[in-house]
Amino acid sequence: MSAAGGPRHVAVVGAGPAGLAAARAAAEAGARVTLLDAADQTGGQYWRHPAEPLDHLAPDDLSVQHGWRTYRALDDAVRTHPRVDVVTGAQVWAAEQHDDGQRLHVLVGLPDDLDREALTLAPDAVVVATGAHDRTLPFPGWDLPGVTTAGAAQALVKGDRVAVGDRVVVAGAGPFLLPVAATLAARGTSVVEVLEASSARALARGWLTSPWRLSGSTAKLTELAGYAATHVRHRIPYRIGSAVVAAHGTTHVEAVTIARLDAGWAPVPGTERTLEVDAVCVSHGFTPRLEIAIALGTRITPSRFVSVDDRQRTSSPGVWAAGETTGIGGVDAALAEGWLAGHDAAGGDPATPDARRAVKRRRATREVAARLARAHGIRPGWVSWLRDDTIVCRCEEVTAGRLRETVALTASTDPVSVKLTSRAGLGICQGRMCSPAVSALLGAPGALEARPVVTPVRLGDLARAGSPPPTSRTTTSPGTRPGDEHPTPERKDTP
């Protein structure tokens, strides 16, 4: 129960697998739920799909979706539940932790609208399920048109039915490369090669040691086997210990340089070869979206994830976290963690059979997450790919040479100091893409995710947020009387 006497109000930020699972579990445990997502539809990056009604999707669209039945069940459950409000197109631009709880400041509407509605939430509990995005290591030419993240390439196929090119190389590290290549091949793209940076020894150490510990993750292994079968069917070469170390072209990608890597991911001299392609899809794992979690005062681990306990509670009272913000473990981990976070945030009993089953599922997925890190974790030798003129921060066009010069002149490797001096991380993305690379080059843990304004907003939006106009909506904890602030958003989105 909330302090006001009504059901607890749980705000879930992010409507991907973890967020959907959290919203459903919180509602079923008796809470009133507000589910927020910046996109115009639920599903997150994993269940990205075309904008038309779900029932109208063609077989080709469904063929590139994974776990679609699970998504439909979750989406239907939250949208039809009487205590759940789904607010899409809702950008949380600031989050605050006060003595009496949290405040979430939200702008609802299209990002380029001049009159987005301002919404303020003061829930009893917040579940942060903001997910992650591709981590891409910079290399010469990575700013050419035709170089995309692997996640972006997959999203274009799933959401817009667009292939990034005709001849594509998929490169980076991690099993995510397999479904991306399979998705592209299903759309008729010629996937010339898939390049895994980790060595055979690292892969064996990560995946083949004590294989019985993976007995709880047979579904994930079966899924990977299916992707491998697709590679065999389309005759896609899969090369271990190799990477794209440069892209070439004038107005777009025309070719790439591929090199063998040693165990530390440094290119082996004399192994370079050139491959003609018109697109490159790269992903070296994922980096979590930490801005909201940091704004709410949660503790961040040295590996740059939100620290949670066995009930998904963070170090900040009233704040839970789930999914890729707590560790990269895949969709099964996100679903289990989301359910636990939502159930506990709503005040649910941790001893119920459903809760025990969720704990068991999470335990199995954590084994997979640990093996992912061992097998595909980034090695420091990648920095030798970079020339002094290689752009690291694409927004501000800051090169690796400029970063090294800044460190030499200031005698400081503090990320914030280097950011202010070199302008790396000060562009429109606010360091979302470059901060891991900048931190790695500096040899210092990243600190560029701490931003009071989570995402760029107009000054006019900030002015209206400080003095809400009559059309603004404010949500407080349940129990308000007529004439007080409105207890829920005025609109409940429908499919």
CATH-assigned fold name of the largest domain: FAD/NAD(P)-binding domain
Strand fraction equals 15-25%
Number of strands: 21
CATH homology superfamily of the largest domain = FAD/NAD(P)-binding domain
Question: Nearest-angstrom radius of gyration?
Answer: 23 Å
Spans of at least 5 consecutive residues whose pLDDT stays below 50 are 468-495
Number of domains: 3
Structural class: alpha/beta
**Largest β-sheet summary:** 5 strands, parallel
Please tell me the overall pLDDT. 84
If classified by CATH, what would the architecture of the largest domain be?
Answer: 3-Layer(bba) Sandwich
Helical region count?
14
Proportion of helical residues: 25-40%
CATH C-level label of the largest domain: Alpha Beta
Question: Care to describe what's here?
Answer:
With 495 residues, the chain is an alpha/beta fold. Helix content is 31%, strand content 21%. The protein contains 14 helices and 21 strands. The strands form six sheets. Strands 3-2-1-7-18 form a five-stranded parallel sheet. A five-stranded parallel sheet has the order 9-16-10-11-12. β13 (242-248) and β14 (255-260) form a beta hairpin. α1 packs parallel to α9 and α9 (331-345) packs across α10 (353-376).
Itemize the secondary structure elements and their pairings:
Blueprint lengths: L8 E5 L3 H12 L3 E6 L21 H5 L4 H13 L3 E5 L1 E9 L2 E8 L8 E5 L3 E4 L3 E3 L12 E3 H11 L6 E7 L3 H10 L3 E7 L3 H8 L10 H17 L3 E3 L1 E7 L6 E6 L12 E4 L2 E6 L1 E3 L2 H5 L23 E3 L9 H15 L7 H24 L14 E3 L4 E2 H11 L4 H8 L12 H8 L16 H8 L6 E3 L20
Parallel strand pairs: 1-2, 1-7, 2-3, 6-21, 7-18, 9-16, 10-11, 10-16, 11-12
Antiparallel strand pairs: 4-5, 5-6, 8-17, 13-14, 14-15, 19-20
